[in-house]
Structures are given as structure tokens and as C-alpha cells.
Write a structure and sequence with these properties.
The chain is built from six helices and two strands; from the N terminus they run ααααββαα. By secondary structure, it is mainly α. The chain folds into two domains: 47 residues, no CATH class; 63 residues, no CATH class.
Length: 116
């Protein structure tokens, strides 16, 4: 990443911190104390503007008679917070397929919170 891009992303991160705080507190119901603890653990550093540019994509390798239409070439898309981007996903989503993705998403969070 070049210096200009890093500078722009740094500026956007500084400007967006109050907005990110408000969204996290409203959506997840964090108190000020819980938010302060999450900040000390590195949550705000992990949820920056650069992280939002990435998506998690889970593409089925094979599927036999799946009622959720999880066929090859029809991936599930997740935002950096691990939430489904429903307008990009197949119309039916199978809970059995989603449950298999939990360990992968937890591993992603672990790497993200460690800054990797």
C-alpha cells in the first residue's frame, strides 16, 4: 500500500472513530464501561476503515440435494463483523451450512484482533 493510501485510510480512521463507537454501542448494546474494555483489547484498531474493505467469502465445495441452494458457485458473503451480506447470498440459507462456518469466523476474529 502506498503512502497516499495509508494517509487517506489513517484520516478516515480518525474521523470515523466516533461513528464506529456509536454504531457498536447502539447495535450491540455496549455500556460505556464495556466499550472501554473492548477498546483496550483492540476492538477499535481491528474495526477500521481498511477492515471494512474486506469480505469473508465461503464457497461450497460440493453439495448434494441441499434445500438451501448451496451449490458450487453460489458463495455466502460476510462483512468484517461476521454478518451475512444477504443481498449477495443465495435466497435460501441452510443452518447446517452456516454452523460449519463458525470456527472459521472465530479464527478470522482472532487474527483480526491480533492485527494480522
Amino acid at each position: 500500500m502506498d503512502k497516499l493510501t495509508q494517509g487517506v485510510l489513517g484520516l478516515l480512521n480518525r474521523v470515523s472513530k466516533p461513528v464506529v463507537k456509536r454504531v457498536i454501542m447502539n447495535r450491540w448494546g455496549y455500556t460505556e464501561e464495556e466499550f472501554a474494555q473492548a477498546s483496550r483489547l483492540g476492538l477499535l484498531e481491528a474495526l477500521n476503515v481498511e477492515a471494512v474493505t474486506y469480505w469473508l467469502v465461503a464457497e461450497p465445495v460440493c453439495s448434494n440435494h441441499c434445500s438451501g441452494c448451496h451449490n458450487e458457485g453460489r458463495p455466502l458473503y460476510f462483512n468484517p463483523m461476521g454478518m451475512l451480506i444477504k443481498h449477495r447470498c443465495p435466497p435460501g440459507i441452510c443452518i447446517h451450512g452456516l454452523s460449519q462456518l463458525s470456527p472459521v469466523i472465530y479464527a478470522y476474529y482472532d487474527y483480526m484482533l491480533r492485527g494480522k
